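Supplementary notes (optional reading)

For those who missed the lab, this is the record we used. Protein: ALA-interacting subunit. Length: 340 residues.
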Amino acid sequence: MQFQDARHDMAVGLTFFLALYQFTQQNLPACKPVLTPAAVISTFLLMGLIFIPVGLVTLRASYSVVEIVDRYDIDCIPEEHRSNKVAYVKDDSISKNCSRFLKVPKSMRAPVYIYYQLDNYYQNHRRYVKSRSDRQLLHGLEYNDTGSCRPLESSDDLPIVPCGLIAWSLFNDTYKFSRGPSELKVNRKNIAWKSDRNHKFGKHVYPFNFQNGTFTGGAKLDPSIPLSDQEDLIVWMRTAALPTFRKLYGRIEEDLEADDVIVVHLKNNYNTYSFGGKKKLVLSTSSWLGGKNDFLGVANLFVGTVSILISIIFLLLHVKNPRHYGDTAYSSWNRKSISS
């Protein structure tokens, strides 16, 4: 019995030694593709034939999107106040009403998405991003540990709901649209992610003591509407990664024809002047690929074109200097004789 156990142990040890030897000597079974000139040239050519059509299709989808971008933060300040823009936007006694006229360059099929765009606005700043309480947004006053919301976790010894710098700086410019004598209705429902509405903002959590402190930030919230229905807030609380970003304001669910003049009645309330920011209004349609973005199409065209150029270069080199597969004349021990 002991002899059989010893033989078994020796067999296991020998198997392990052989496996280890094969591993260290790189003799394990493996896929080792042979990169022949024909295979390499065909691969690059195939990549080019795939990427170029994909790039053309995505570029066409991007070009089919009609987009109107209007920067209004400078033009919507009266001439007499342009020397001190910050004082103007902070003075509540001065009217912030402004009218803009947008001409539709091409026919825009419904829905037409309305975005506001902010430039030079760093929502990804560490202290700004951390100044919120996700549990409070979901449970309201039942959750008291809001230390992460500093410096805006309370006001007058009362908690703030929603607390933090992100909610406090909520965008508060407003827009109304008209075409000729008729007003264009803006649908502001379902502009936030459904998952955010259902799982991140409480259906029974209401704003409390919000924007009642010494320093007033952005928009105020209706204390009679639960946070799950305050979609402006939900959109704003999903912070942007880059300093230039767009956020959805609403949708115009009517077709806009070419050469239509859209009158925008807006209130220029939001202060971007103190940090050199810019505000833009964007009207855009969409395609099966989303909004207007040429990068994906240009990137595909670039990769496809480079792949075809590489395949042509390799083909010319192969035709000029052909080399038969397995020719030992090119081995290291024969190179001296070739050169001589």
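If you only remember one thing from this example: The CA atoms of residues 116 and 286 lie 16 Å apart.
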